[in-house]
Amino acid sequence: MKSHVRLLLASVLAFVAGVAFTQGVTQTDPLPSWNEGAAKKAIVEFVRATTDKTSSKFVPPEARIATFDQDGTLWVEHPMYTQVVYCLDHVPAVVKAKPELANMEPFRTVLSGDREAISKLSTDDLLKVLAATMTGMSVDQFKIEVKNWLATARDPRWKRHYTELTYLPMLELLTYLRANGYKTYIVTGGGQDFVRVYAQEVYGIPPEQVVGTAGGVKYSYDQDGKPFLTKEPKLLLNDNNAGKPEGIHLMIGRRPYAAFGNSTGDRQMLEYTKAGDGERLAILLLHDDAKREYAYGPALGLPDTKVGAFTEPLYDEAKKQGWVVISMKSDWNRIFTFDK
Amino acid sequence: MKSHVRLLLASVLAFVAGVAFTQGVTQTDPLPSWNEGAAKKAIVEFVRATTDKTSSKFVPPEARIATFDQDGTLWVEHPMYTQVVYCLDHVPAVVKAKPELANMEPFRTVLSGDREAISKLSTDDLLKVLAATMTGMSVDQFKIEVKNWLATARDPRWKRHYTELTYLPMLELLTYLRANGYKTYIVTGGGQDFVRVYAQEVYGIPPEQVVGTAGGVKYSYDQDGKPFLTKEPKLLLNDNNAGKPEGIHLMIGRRPYAAFGNSTGDRQMLEYTKAGDGERLAILLLHDDAKREYAYGPALGLPDTKVGAFTEPLYDEAKKQGWVVISMKSDWNRIFTFDK
Fold first, then answer.
1. Which of A11, A176, A309, B202 could disulfide-pair with A30, CB 3.0 to 4.6 Å?
2. What sections of chain A are H helices per DSSP?
3. Does B127 touch chain A (CB under 8 A)?
């Protein structure tokens, strides 16, 4: 055999081995943190059916959109939304810039550090804190402040960075869906600009695939004539409840094939997704693991909870509408990357 | 040589030939409708520098965002925006559903068919026509109506479907940028929902990469409990002038590396793009070809035009800011696909 033929053959063999290796990898479990059970089975079967060209449920790659709520679906939302913690932590800096706020409510209560009083602040008061800490600065400045805070702040229970409190099974699911041609979006009631700061690094989701509660920005010029954008206290999209399908239409323009949520704020997104033609997957995550995470809502037989309101009626709707319910306790063998 | 070895060798040779063929294709001109000149050179050099890993101007693939105005940049905007033609054409259907409008202005004028009177309608009157023909129906119904109209309507000059009046050199440019890892977006003053109907088919741009003037939608249920979205007469984003960078922030969340426009409505998008760090490309298309398309704005020494206002001061700013100016007349050897 001539040497160039030998070389060609070697390439072929390497190529064939590569294919075999790739096939081997695809055959390993893409969802190792998920226990075998109805939830995992429903997900894997959905992916198989919608990506199999010979299936009547096949979905063309460009239409494969999957949307994920964030708080309580991709990461921990108890005892307080991470973004609210960020805003409360930023009150001292805001008061330093505007000292007259120190004696005004709700800033005085926040500055007192009295956790119980803070937890009793009204929604209106919290909105004042959010407006003061999330608007008025340039888009670039806000990004830097969030980045710096995430690099240092730690949650009170696990003493971990907040970005470590993401659910490993959901990270596996994001990767698995993307490997099967799904474009993954976050559709969050949280601030769009806030989540965009870390979504790429934490979830592998680029800023343009984060839909969230969004405020207006204002275009203007600095003293050197350089243009910049300022965050304005003007609400464009409240990305909760009916705002979720409305936001999906605004930002994506097509109906998802799969949607994942955990609270009443996700109800309409799940309904809207499930109501589409063909095969659709709607999934509700049940927080029923007080030991490894938290138990709230229907897991405790509670009608409602202040944070991440997942009510009994929602649980009933899930069963009625054929949504898949994930039990953190029984469906997940690991919750966090740092779990043994 | 055994037969399976022969088979393997044949595959290898086919593979090698394929590579050579692919390389041959890449070496052919990706912009054949562009004449050699400053504009083409600037574009090719920008793409080369931002995609060459050894270049100081290298841009990582995930940050490669290119934004295109539509009317007058990707397709013809004279003598009237296509979307306005659509709305005027839809007035009879609206009046049929609400006969009381027949004797009310501006609907009476539109129904008269008097082209001169129609062209003199005020902006307020046109907005009334737009609201009546673009809102009040479901998102799905609107999509069907636009699709049907595009399949039948023809422009008065070339007697072609409006979707044929796209500029071939710009279609080549979109393909060229995408082949080099750029994510291409439309950022249009036109209606987001309108452009999304045909953007994939006409420009290869999916709905989620169309940013435009956007109205609110309302989530509700039909009599069978099935959810749907209705287009509301509520403006969320006026995607013109400062609204373009503001819309880019809302919908994309990062600054483009390349932006393409043709009128004062694109000024802020071009400024914002060019003001970013590193290598940025801002391009202004000059309509100076009365024979093959239209000549207006600075090409005629006019201070302004009603449609696609491209003013002398904008032309001056382009030169001052280092924007590249494309002359349709000298830079393009073909304008439409149907040109010889």
1. A176
2. 3-27, 38-51, 82-89, 91-97, 107-112, 115-119, 123-134, 139-152, 168-179, 192-203, 243-251, 267-274, 312-321, 328-331
3. no
